[in-house]
């Protein structure tokens, strides 16, 4: 196996091990030797790939953010703004459900990073808000979404925020009475009420 491929594989092993440890023990409760043992490699090799524990935490957070980019790329093939929005919400929330451990680390431990380092994580999240605002505007231009949509930027932030709410609280707050499909359907109904023209009342 080429050296680059070996390094990439080791890097992935370190991130996977650190993500599990950070989610259970917290960032400050985890040491570099802990991560090395969990990844099955030497502590020296970890420092060769990651110069500090902070860089590992950053890599864990960046790994979580990449799921947003992948979802957007797949959804861009859908022409209808409403259908694209629904597909985005459905896939985004499903992914957040399956990667909640990553999200927990990002929320709990991101504040320990330097401000400039945090911006490397927050930047893609803000761009996701921008994407939804642009999608709302596209839908308005197409006549699909209402022109008097209240606070599009807040609504855009709510898309991701409500997905995070499910991922962070699905076990202790929603389960067992509310499952993922019920949650998605309910939130889509809420978003549709904000995005779409109100139904015409029958005389």
From TrEMBL:
All copies of domain HTH tetR-type, residue ranges: 8-68
GO molecular function: DNA-binding transcription factor activity; transcription cis-regulatory region binding
Domain of life: Bacteria
Species: Ktedonobacter racemifer DSM 44963
Protein name in the entry: Transcriptional regulator, TetR family
Residues annotated as transmembrane: none
One family name in Pfam for this protein: TetR_C_24
UniProt keyword Transcription, yes or no: yes
Known DNA-binding region: 31-50
């Amino acid at each position: 196996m080429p050296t680059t491929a070996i390094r990439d594989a080791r890097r992935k092993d370190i991130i996977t091990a650190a993500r599990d440890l950070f989610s259970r023990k917290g960032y400050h409760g985890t040491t570099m030797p802990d991560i090395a043992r969990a990844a099955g490699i030497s502590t020296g090799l970890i420092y060769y790939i990651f110069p500090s524990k902070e860089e590992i935490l950053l890599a864990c957070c960046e790994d979580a953010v990449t799921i947003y980019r992948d979802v957007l790329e797949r959804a861009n093939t859908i022409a209808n703004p409403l259908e694209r929005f629904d597909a985005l919400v459905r896939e985004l929330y499903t992914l957040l459900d399956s990667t909640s451990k990553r999200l927990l680390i990002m929320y709990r431990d991101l504040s320990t990073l330097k401000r400039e380092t945090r911006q490397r994580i927050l930047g893609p999240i803000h761009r996701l808000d921008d994407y939804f605002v642009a999608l709302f505007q596209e839908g308005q231009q197409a006549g699909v979404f209402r022109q008097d949509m209240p606070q599009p930027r807040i609504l855009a932030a709510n898309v991701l925020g409500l997905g995070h709410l499910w991922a962070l609280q699905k076990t202790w707050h929603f389960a067992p009475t509310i499952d993922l499909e019920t949650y998605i359907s309910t939130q889509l109904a809420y978003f549709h009420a904000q995005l779409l023209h109100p139904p015409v009342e029958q005389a």
